[in-house]
Amino acid sequence: MEEAHKKELIAAIQIQLQKVTELCGADDVPPEIKVHEIRKSFKRQSALLKLFPAELQSEVDKFRKPLRIIARRLTLGRESTVNLQLLDRLVAETGGLDESSNAILKAKLIQTNDESLDELIAKEKVLDDILRLMSDGQETLLPLSISTDYFVFVFDELRATFQKSKDWYRLIASGYDAELYHNLRKQMKTLWYQSELEAPGQTEVPGTVLEKLHYITDQLGDDHDWYIFIKEISREMYALSIDDIRKMKQLVRDTQDLNLLSLHQNLADFFSLSGEEYIELLRRL
User: Which Pfam family, just one, is annotated for this protein (predicted)?
Assistant: First the structure.
């Protein structure tokens, strides 16, 4: 099984390296989609790289550290795109502010989004940096991972990741803190990416533990997105009045509260499992 996991891990990373390389060179993919898909791939790669044994981690870090640095550079571009989407959603569901204020705010968010993406792609040439890193992964990391003799103990890492997730879950029990919820999401996202190595394709199957895990990470993601949205539109550059900011905060809070009602129950159900019970459910998929 450990030998099979080694081959699966190498193949999974190779797929992600190739995916990102193709995205960088795809002329028909809009920049906001490129940024989103590349960030997702980077998160998956980072989670998978943790599955390599301790004796390889010093070499793995030579790839993972610049991966994380570039991922952070992409954050503002992605957040500015999401903020636009959230405004459209809020206006559609609640009306938002008055029609004129909604239009002015949207125009400013569009400007922020355009400038963020232009800064990344046209000025910083981030795609060139990404291509160089993916090439390094293909030429250095993959050959090393193939030629070195080692075992991949996926279930040991899954137990550890599950327990870290559960520890973060216990931390949020005392009250709402957006950053703690975000940290929980990052840990559970890592658990999901790693679990897919053992049970590929099961996220799309209704009722599986992976489908439930993925849904929870989406709910946690929604919560953090709204948190970032309010922080952004409260900045002076958007010139909203105090009353408008207060109204938007309440609309967002109402939306978050509905999400949290369902999220808290889903988290309680998920973490009623022990680590061993979770792994057993994975094995059955």
Answer: CHAD
98 phi and psi angles, rounded to 5 deg: -75, 165
Could you tell me if 184 and 168 are in contact, meaning their C-beta atoms sit under 8 angstroms apart?
Answer: yes
Residue from 237, 255, 257, 233 nearest 246 by CA: 233
Total-model pTM: 0.94
Q: Domain span at residue 274? A: 154-285
Shared-domain flag, residues 81 and 159:
no
Q: Tell me: do 145 and 165 sit in the same domain.
A: no
Whether 21 and 128 have beta carbons less than 8 Å apart is answered as no
Q: Answer yes or no: do 6 and 103 share one domain.
A: yes
- Dihedral sign of CA atoms 72, 78, 82, 84 in order: positive
Closest CA to 269 of 226, 199, 228, 219: 219
pLDDT tens, 229-282? 999 999 999 999 999 999 999 999 999 999 999 999 999 999 999 999 999 999
Tell me how crowded residue 229 is: count the other CB atoms within 10 A of its CB: 22
State both tokens at 269.
């159900």
Q: Where are the beta strands (DSSP E) in the chain?
A: none
Same domain, 3 and 116: yes
